[in-house]
Amino acid sequence: DDLKLQDPACEDPQYPMSGLGHVIDEQLSELLLEEFGADLPNFRRTQLEFGLKLSLLVERNTEAKGDELELELLGFLAYKTWGPPAPCVS
Description:
Low-confidence stretches: none
Number of helices: 2
Mean pLDDT: 85
Order of helices and strands: HHEEEE
Distance between the termini: 16 Å
Strand content: 15-25%
Structural class: alpha+beta
Number of strands: 4
């Protein structure tokens, strides 16, 4: 799937799964900053301007209680299709 990061200024961001907003704001943002030195606004801008696509691999904790995470980010895939002269994906 291609998950579009929502603008945090949006009053009620809509994601296809309950809890994804928290996964993105807390877990993905931390991972992007630690591993790539990028933040969510930069990633969102790259999606808009260059067609970067994003898929998240999450696991649902069906026994989550209280402050425990309902969804845990296991990984993500970010990719972009390149055009001519040598079409490919990176």
